[in-house]
Amino acid sequence: MASVRHDPAQPKVAPDERMRRSGGADGTNGVARRAEWPIPGAEVGPTVRTMTEEVAQLEAYRLSARALASRILNAQEQERVRVSRELHDDTGQALTLLLVRLQLVEGMSSEPEVRRELADLRLLVGETIDGVRRLAVHLGPSVLEDLGLRAALEWLADRVRAETGLVVALRLDCDCRNVPAEVAVAIFRVAQEALTNVVRHAQATRVDVRLGTDDDCLELLVADDGSGFAVDEAKARPIASVGLFGMAERIALVGGGLDIDSSPGAGTRIRASVPLRVEVFA
Ligand SMILES: Nc1ncnc2c1ncn2[C@@H]1O[C@H](COP(=O)(O)OP(=O)(O)OP(=O)(O)O)[C@@H](O)[C@H]1O
Ligand SMILES: [Mg+2]
Q1: For atom 24 of ligand 1, which residue has the closest CA?
Q2: pLDDT, tens only, 80-104
Q3: Class (C level, CATH) for 166-275
Q4: What does the pLDDT look like over 140-178, one tens digit per residue?
Q5: Ligand 1: distance of its center to the CA of 282 in Å?
């Protein structure tokens, strides 16, 4: 390895200083060139004006992007409610009617084979009704409206446990009675999306869901022990990260913040925090 020996007769000189003394790499022979400001003869007015205009334009874009996100999320929420209601009222009713008529026909037949076939069909229709009902509840906020945030989170945790076998440890440290409706919807949808992501992507064995208050903020934490992921890479794929974007945007629209802490092999922690005494600008 090459070593640099220092001549004790010479004072120690830092490399960049040596470069400056020896004439410099820029050919200025060691004479430092400093930009003069304002540059003589240059007009700074138009440059400053252009930059100010660009900053104003960027701010306008940011505000209109946020307004658009708000409208999209509201439209999505309304659409979910509409589809949920239709599933419940139309599809659900039609299937129930079908079930009743199958029962009638089954009673009218004395053929054992036909009766067996009809009984099987009845079971199938019964299962389909359960599926439609589950989907309607999942889509609509009725569980939230009917039961409130605490019970809705309990329902969500039960459902994930029953459908996936995942250990869902739920801790609710707030009575949530004073939580404004729009904050409750945002928190519930974040919990729903975060748990869906755990089931779809994390290969976790356990997920902790905690709801509590801290410094006048309502806080939701969803932490799994799964595969984790590179957050910046996922965010850089905007099309693929609608779920992450939607969570952050929902929470921002009720004046809060969302923090995603994850890396490959280290599980994922999602923390949503919403101040309970702020003007909501949704
Ligand atoms: N809990 C998690 N564990 C591991 N990877 C995750 C987790 N949550 C998100 N990811 C990763 O981040 C990506 C982006 O998540 P995001 O929810 O935005 O999209 P998605 O779930 O793939 O699709 P969708 O738009 O339907 O939600 C996922 O594709 C996945 O790779
Ligand atoms: Mg997702």
Answers
A1: 243
A2: 878 887 887 788 889 988 998 998 9
A3: alpha beta
A4: 767 787 788 999 999 899 989 998 999 999 999 988 888
A5: 25
Distance of alpha carbon 62 from alpha carbon 74, whole angstroms: 18
Tell me which residue has its CA closest to atom 9 in ligand 1. Answer: 197
The whole-angstrom separation of Cα 268 and Cα 202 is 8
pLDDT, tens only, 178-232: 899 889 989 999 999 999 999 999 999 999 999 999 888 999 999 999 999 999 9
Angstrom distances, CA of residue 105 to CA of 47, 101, 129: 84, 6, 19
Site to probe by mutation for ligand 1, drawn from 72, 189, 193, 229 as the one with most ligand atoms within 8 Å of Cβ, is 229
What is the C-alpha to C-alpha distance for residues 272 and 218, in angstroms, rounded to an integer?
8
Which ligand is closest in space to the CA of residue 204? 1
Which residue's C-alpha comes closest to atom 27 of ligand 1? 243
pLDDT at 19: 41
The torsion angles phi and psi of 28, rounded to 5 degrees, stand at: -95, 5
Pocket-testing residue among 168, 241, 262, ligand 1, by greatest number of atoms within 8 A of Cβ = 241
Question: Closest-lying ligand to the alpha carbon of 249?
Answer: 1
Q: How far is the CA of 119 from the centre of ligand 1 (A)?
A: 42
Mean pLDDT of the chain: 82
The single-letter code of the amino acid at 265 is: G
Q: What gap in Å lies between CA 44 and CA 100, rounded to an integer?
A: 82
**Res 31 pLDDT > 80:** no
